[in-house]
Amino acid sequence: MKNFKNKNLPILLVGVILFLFASNVNAQKKAEFGIRYMPNVSSFELNTSSGGIIKGEATIGYGIGAFLGINFTDHVGMQVEMIYSSISQKYKEVDVEREINLKYINIPVLLSLNTNKSGPVNLNLVGGPQLGLNVGSSVNTSGGDGTYTTEARVKVKPSDLGFAYGAGIDFGLNDAKTIRLGLGFRGVLGLIDISDDNETVVTDSYYVISRTTIKTYSAYMGLSILF
Q: How far apart are CA 69 and CA 111, in angstroms?
């Protein structure tokens, strides 16, 4: 527990600073709230039953989220997001196919740079740290003739830390340009090993998640309102 707190202290401090800054922003600055749909693909390494390491076949996952931002000017802002993400990988060993599913609640804190947030069209770049909280993991096995009995187990650490980055474009939909349609790309580079193999596995079983970090790549589409 002590290590968890130490690893995530920088993100907590960023969150506190953002909250204090937002509390003192004058009324002329615009806050923004939005929701997004975020299909994704991911990349992480897997173990085979024979001890080898492979990269699985990426499958399309999904994410849904919301964000709250503060635009200090039309060109600079910050935003905090909360995103539920489901990511998965498939691989085949002999005639058995396995699909590994991981579910996270991700909380990125991002600096945003804009061409003109109040304009009819705005281009943006974002970047910053992301905390991920694992809320589920599973492995599904299919195929085989019943003679292949080695069991794959999945276990990951309760939290992940990464760097989120991306770019997008948003369009003002009403005369005041306060209702906006956003389209864009988001990538996340994992910074820590997510595997957790501290427990001894029983005979004829193994941990399927290798010592690996996660990389995810998402597209997004969403609506937001400036207020």
A: 10
**Separation in Å, CA 129 to CA 3, 78, 106, 160:** 18, 12, 10, 11
Q: What is the CA radius of gyration of the chain?
A: 20
Distance CA 206, CA 158 (A): 19
pTM, entire model: 0.81
Rounded to whole angstroms, the Cα distance separating 215 from 44 reads 7
SS3 39: coil
Structural domains in the chain plus CATH codes: 2-226 (2.40.160.20)
- For 144-179, the pLDDT digits (tens) are 665 656 778 888 999 999 999 999 999 999 999 999
* Closest by Cα among 189, 227, 176, 221 to 65: 221
Q: What are phi and psi of 20, to 5 degrees?
A: -65, -40
pLDDT digits (tens, 9 = 90+) for 20-31: 454 544 444 589
Token digits for 32? Answer: 């923004």
pLDDT at 16 over 70: no
What residue type is assigned to position 46 of the chain?
Answer: L
β-strand 121-143 against 96-114: which pairing, if any?
antiparallel
Number of CB atoms found within 10 A of residue 16's CB: 10
